[in-house]
Design a protein that fits this description.
Helix content: over 70%
Number of strands: 0
Number of helices: 6
Radius of gyration: 15 Å
Distance between the termini: 38 Å
Order of helices and strands: HHHHHH
Largest sheet: none
Length: 167
């Protein structure tokens, strides 16, 4: 079994085996939440530089809420509305895998480097989306990449809408 930091690095490296491991480890839910909290704090640090303590608090809280909503949407759409025949998943599995998919989010702090703000947003967002695709595919035991992408895109769309509404 991997350590917390090994899981974070492996998840960021898009290693399928890590996502399978955390899906199966019911004790890893707290770790997954820890990854999301760290990623949310990284976003909050950038917001602090732009909007002070209020910006930090709002961005950090928004990032946490958005992850939770995205995970719930993935679970409802992927496991309840559009399951594949072999899909056997519970909300804990989805929370654990999608939580670790937030691992690249620690790099949000690179947005503080002058000239890297926009590039950081694009790169980290794309990386986290790819991690989410792998996480969702493992959590829902999907064979179809098209279905996986569809579920992730529905969640991503709602993630953006909610994120904009809360900011």
């Amino acid at each position: 079994m991997s350590t917390f930091s090994q899981r974070m690095v492996g998840a960021a490296k898009l290693e399928v085996s890590i996502y399978k491991e955390v899906r199966a480890d019911t004790q890893a839910t707290g770790q997954a939440l820890g990854v999301v909290v760290l990623s949310s704090i990284a976003q909050g640090i950038v917001a602090f530089a732009q909007g002070g303590l209020r910006g930090f608090a709002l961005r950090t809280a928004t990032a946490l809420v958005v992850w939770l909503v995205w995970a719930l949407v993935v679970y409802l759409v992927g496991a309840k509305i559009l399951p594949e025949p072999q899909t056997r998943s519970d909300i804990g599995e989805v929370l654990r895998t999608t939580g670790f998919a937030a691992s690249p989010g620690l790099l949000w702090v690179l947005g503080l480097v002058p000239g890297l703000g926009f590039l950081t947003v694009v790169a980290v967002s794309a990386w986290m989306f790819l991690a989410m695709v792998i996480a969702v595919r493992q959590a829902l035991n999907y064979e179809s990449m098209e279905r996986t992408m569809g579920v992730c895109l529905v969640g991503w769309f709602l993630h953006i809408v909610i994120g904009v509404m809360l900011r």
